Amino acid sequence: MKKKGLIYLFIALAVILLLGVPAHRMSREHVNYITAVEDHPLNCFSCHLYIQKDNFLAKLVNTTYLSPFNLAVSPDGGKLYIVAQEGDVLVVIDSQSDQVLDKIPVGKHPHSVVLNHAGNTAFVSNQWEDNIYEIDLNSLNVIDTLKTGSGPAGMVLSKDEKFLYVVNSFGNEVSVIELDSKTEKKRLVAGNNPTGLAISHSGDLIYVSSRRVLPRPARAPVKTEMTVIDATKQRVKERKMFKHAYMMENVEFASTGDLAVATLIRLKNLVPSIQVEQGWMMTHGFGIIETGEDGRIIQLLTDEPNSYYSDPFDVVITPDGEKAFISSSGIDVINVIDLNKVRKLIAESTPEELKTYSNHLGISSRYVLKRIPTGANPKGLVLSPDGKYLYVAERLEDRIAVINTKTLETEKHIDLDGPSRITMARKGRRLFNNSGRTFQNQYGCYTCHPDAAEDGVAYNMAGVGMGRNVTNTQTLRDVGDIPPFKWNGHNQSVYKQDGMRFSTYLTRTEPYNYDELDALVSYIVTGIINPPNLAYNPTGELTEAQKRGEKVFFRTHTNCGKDIKPKDRCYVCHPPPDFTNKNFENVGSLSESDDSIPFDTPQLNNLSSSSPFLHDGRAKTLEEIWTTYDPGDRHGITSDMTKDDLNDLVKFLRSIRDARYYTKYYSEEYEELLKEYYSNNEYRNLK
Amino acid sequence: MNNKKSIILTFFFIAVIIIGISLVSCTNQSSKGMIIVARVPVDNFSFNEENICHNFPGACLMAINLAESAGSEINLTPDFYSACFPQISYDAKHLLFTGQKSKNDPWQVWEMDLKKKKSRKVTDFEESCCTPDYLPGERLVFSREMPDTGTGPSRALFTMNLDGSNLQQITFHPHINYVQTILRDGRILMLSKQIFPKKGEIKSLAIRPNGTKAEIFYKGIKGSIAGVRVRETGKGLIYFTEQDTGKLKKRDIVSIHQNRPLHTKVNYTKDIAGSFYSVLPASSKELLVSFCPSGDQTIGLYTFNIDDKSVKESLPGGSKYHFIDPVLVEPYERPRNLPIMELNLSYPTGLIMCQDINLTALTGNNGESIPKATKIEVLGMNKSLGIVPVEEDGSFFLKVIADLPFRIRTLDENNKVIVSSSDWIWIRPFERRGCVGCHEDHELAPENIVPLAVNGWPVLIPVDTINSLEKRKTFELGDMH
Amino acid sequence: MFRPNRNLPKAIKVLFISILVISISGFSPNNQNTKIIPGERHDNQTTDGENSRVIGSGNNIADIKKEAGEMPVYGNWKTFTKKDGLPANKAYCVRIDGDRVLVGTSGGLGVYENGEWRTYTVEDGIAHNGILAIDVSELTGDVWLGTLGGLTRWSAGRFDTFTQLNSGLANNVIYSVICDGKHVWSATGGGAGDYNTYTDEWEIYMERNAPMHEPWTYGVCAGDDKIWIAAWGGGVIEFNTKTKKFRDYIDPDSQMELDVFPDDGVVHDITTGVSYDEGILWVATYFGVNRYDGAHWNTYFDHDSGLLSNFNNFCRAVGPVIYFCTDLGLSTFNGNTWVSYQRNESNASGKVMITNGPKLTDDIKIREFPVPTSICHNFTIGVDVQDDEIWVATSYGVSRGERLKK
Lengths: 687, 481, 406
Fold this sequence. Notes:
The complex is a heterotrimer.
Chain A (H helix, E strand, L loop, with lengths): L1 H34 L8 H5 L7 H6 L6 E6 L5 E6 L4 E6 L5 E6 L4 E6 L5 E6 L4 E6 L4 E7 L4 E6 L5 E6 L4 E6 L4 E7 L2 E8 L5 E8 L10 E8 L4 E9 L7 E3 L5 E9 L14 E9 L6 E5 L10 E6 L5 E6 L4 E6 H10 L2 H7 L10 E6 L4 E6 L5 E6 L4 E6 L4 E7 L8 H10 L11 H4 L9 E3 L9 E3 L21 H4 L2 H8 L6 H13 L17 H10 L16 H4 L10 E2 L13 E2 L21 H6 L15 H13 L12 H10 L2 H7 L1
Helix pairs in contact in A: 6-10, 11-14
Chain B lengths: L2 H29 L3 E7 L18 E5 L9 E2 L6 E7 L5 E7 L7 E6 L4 E4 L7 E7 L3 E8 L7 E8 L6 E2 L5 E8 L5 E7 L7 E6 L7 E5 L5 E8 L4 E7 L7 E7 L8 E2 L7 E7 L4 E7 L7 E6 L5 E5 L5 E8 L20 E6 L20 E5 L4 E6 L6 E6 L5 E5 L5 E3 L12 E4 L23 E3 L20
Parallel strand pairs in B: 25-31, 28-32
Antiparallel strand pairs in B: 1-2, 1-24, 2-3, 4-5, 5-6, 6-7, 8-9, 9-10, 10-11, 12-13, 13-14, 14-15, 16-17, 17-18, 18-19, 20-21, 21-22, 22-23, 25-28, 26-27, 26-29, 29-30
Chain C lengths: L7 H19 L33 H9 L5 E7 L10 E7 L2 E6 L2 E6 L2 E5 L10 E6 L6 E5 L2 E6 L2 E5 L11 E7 L2 E6 L2 E6 L4 E5 L11 E7 L2 E6 L3 E6 L4 E5 L21 E7 L2 E6 L2 E5 L4 E4 L11 E7 L2 E6 L2 E5 L3 E7 L6 E7 L9 E6 L8 E7 L2 E6 L2 E7 L3
Antiparallel strand pairs in C: 1-30, 2-3, 3-4, 4-5, 6-7, 7-8, 8-9, 10-11, 11-12, 12-13, 14-15, 15-16, 16-17, 18-19, 19-20, 20-21, 22-23, 23-24, 24-25, 25-26, 26-27, 28-29, 29-30
């Protein structure tokens, strides 16, 4: 009996041993293959749970948060109206009882909310729906929809409340909407990717802040525009240029009428990225615009020599014009700026001194009164009408912080009643938006990938040498399924992309631990989608010109009837659904300062919103790719095309939407063509 | 086997486990909440010639529970002739210190298992070592005497694994260097004093554990001497003692803030008679300090209240001993483990770029601006390594032999010196380094421009070795991210 | 490398020919018109033309005003050339924009404001210094410049340039530009372009998708949901912005040198300018001009009307009045009365010629009034009018005239 037992025990141990060892080896090989690194723990959840998309598990694991983004307060200070960017609702809060009174459904991806002076009407801009909802705040119902341009974001009402000014953040204009007729009267050209705007207290000036730099020659210093609109004439009066700065998310006038303050980042994309120390990668601060005649534009930093306050987002100024509050969304603090000290500083300083201060990391100690810690990712700010309280939208906490503007202490938090559980993707999103994992908090993933896309700037990444391998920032939207990553395609997985090399060359501090890496990958792979391509393809039905362009894209013969070699056909390197073959190609775009390598074929989804183009961003427009930077037909055969052929092709390229629209099936006309080149299996893999 | 037997056996095992656990927890408990301090015989209390650091002969490390009555202290190093400079590991289970078994031994770094009270030798050199501290990743950093190569006695910093393997020298300039602490951002803070070609002021430099990006962190007023023991709090305050330049050579407790160390010094004790020899933050309000109220008294342990500036005696030195360098036996936050991959030790060179040599915080004697320089001269230890014309925008781009100390001065067209030599610099293998100007304001970030110099090839330094070492190796295939 | 436009070489060829013709015909300050000499009759005048000639005397201005009737008459001309601050003497176009005047020259854009000239060139961001056309958007106030190197938008100090290489612009050689709400139309050497400023999309209309003879277009104008394009060799192309449909108006007799049947349609297939206002479409050619009221065409020549010359570079309608820029001076017309302005050969004075009737008859003659000042050169290329002020761009400077009151 005892002997039998021992035999069974021995057999069991032998089986475990026999199966266990190879099973472990197989799992190790499997994980190494999937993650493209050799040190990731054998954790099945990492891939089989956290990065699942569009299936039962994904629904089970993930959830939709509210993500408060911008907010407004009623004239009597009794109610808060909060735009929930992910939840697609306007949350109404009783600021006394902290109770959520209502969640009014609004359009897709709402951006901002403004109230009329009476406080009985709210306007909410729906950035991914190209419209504005007019909401009756008595009945809490949406009573009208106003059409706008592409990507409506910040808004202001004219002083007489007859006009609503809306920035079209994707269309680079300001729509002027007449509220009596509810019609758009005109669009004024603004800067590149404008988002915020403010109206002077006299009502005659409107400032529009933009985020992206204006198109410029490669390696030329950057400048970003603050558009000045004469509100009486409804015309652009001036375009103030901020040199060496970008990401001017928001702007605010001081009630004293002498200045306006805008948030900004002073980027260092032209400086070889060889170190982080001493502000060599990014610095953050604000711009002062003197509103008087010949008013100066002055830039000052909120950073300190060994501590950076990344991704400044919103700015508000107390009614007495003495304090400004700036939300540093990348490091979770509110900077309190003593504007009187700023006024004194700029009054006493020569232009040369001010130029030095714009890069000075120590000057902030002269005017930063305090840095108030907040919850994850503070975005929109609003002051109570009496200026006693500052409300902060803590986007990745689903709550509002209430700060006493006298004591500069956080008095309470108002919970917006979002999901209580924090998913892996949400943790990852917090990491993505936070600079704490970069040396001295100088920048985060978000800094160069705002809205998880790209900042439209080419950087001298200086992996080796200096002044070489300038690389255009690539979007992170919907990239999970299209390895390899980076222009040189060195990273075959997001795990590798954000692993050790990432910390060595970019964050230059301790790498993410495996839990953090899983969270970050989960967010990048599952949590970032492309906005709808409303400007160029709202329904999926192509226009006649786009169809002609599609024909050019899928053409196999030149206009002269000559056969085009497969490798020279657009669709071969850029096949749907992602419009990339996930492979390396040389399209003749190498410059002398590039290492001699082929580049990873970029995807083309939502291409229209990601200029400039090519690996070093040398092509400012799609047209330039072929008219200027395609020597010898290396980037497809185009020399036979007429101008209107090219215009049609560009129209088609701009119409390409998110990959999910093409995953199952592309089109009857071209499906066979694709299969003909890619065997059925390969084509399935592409999908 | 019948049930009775098996039940008894099970109980027996459970009992053994419980006893084991309780014993372990007891021994752990034994050092919890205690402090370890160096007890120095009064007669042997003298600072070294630079008046910076101290290895006191005959000293020993005492474990003391301040809550308990006097006499409860335990000598942790009874079998050492001398033991000083205790440093606690992040998990508070081990202790690094410098010691000598017998009188004539060179001082070496030792590590003690606080549970077993057993010590093992970590370094084993003919030269003395001091100021050890733990680095993340099972490594340590320490200061070691260097052979005199004609520059005078110098000390360099080294890192190594705690098991004694993978020794790396990380400083290469003719300075005396001591480890002050490991900053929370992962950098080593070191006290540094130039000894060649002439003696310089004492400064604190921050440096990455791989020896790259050394930069000034703190500098006191001329002649002041910062203490080598430095402690950073969770809120970024960095406490240390500093000897003023007065006749009494009084030592005060000062703090600077990690965010802006060059301009945030606070002196807490300038109005208190007596000298402070070490400081250890015990809470947000209290510091545990080594304090000597007057010249005829010994240095004892006191608690210093930051708010009311009061000093309360905790452990009197008595008549025979001083108590200095206390450490708390408590786990503390591990600093960031900075990546070392940036280095490639197989590379013989590194790169340095300057945006504009004419950008300087210096002015002429009468405050007038300094004339424009058009060249730089790279100075080695004993000779010039080359004169290099700069670009129109004042930028230069050099490829320098790795780990070679050099200084840079700026010249005009006629090779007349415009700005005299910088501090000593060295570039680690494959390190890329940049500076905004020469003698520039250390708080100035670079302007966002492409320096003309980096559009071309770097100039190899020393210039007479051009291409002899490598062929444009810098520009081989590189990682763009 | 992508070839911008296969039609460009041809377009450029035609442009050069045209510029050659222009140069030969009078791109010299000394080459003055000698067509109407006081005391001599016109070729088309009867022999008893002696009696028809009236030389202003006594209250000159009063006589001129009386003779002109409803037609505005301009005088007190002031001339601006390079020495006065104009970027270059060759002025191609002029546009009055509120308190300032914009002049396109061969040396860049000249802006006259508060009595001073300021110059903008390629260094400021303009596509090319040769600026052939200017229009100002009524909606936004943005200035659109048609140049020999592309289309430039000048908006509150910022210059954005659209070329055939960086945008969907049909061709870099732009003869005419017009803002129609959110659309900016350009007549180029490679077709007519429609730029939708809201969607940032471009349409090109040429012989492949519109009833044109070839892609070279010379003028464009807008009104009443229609766009009219002066197409070289294609007459006038009408585009309905609502239906997106085209129709063309070509010379019915297809004769290059003569007009077989009067008033039967566009005088010639080679059209140089179109302008529309108050329901009337005006057409300029090198062979005469047309008026079209939507039902009937009227044709006017130098030999049968008050038109100074058949060689018309440009026309602009303001209200009921059309302004024709000819090689022999400026002719204006309201459908009934012609008032033309011509500089004397020898000095800065000139003459105003009034024809009180659409066409010359035995009873309707050209009356000539000497005036002390005149336009700076008779080879006129551009004109604009606002309130009581007129500006004329010529091959040797620009002239500003004031409407005579009494």
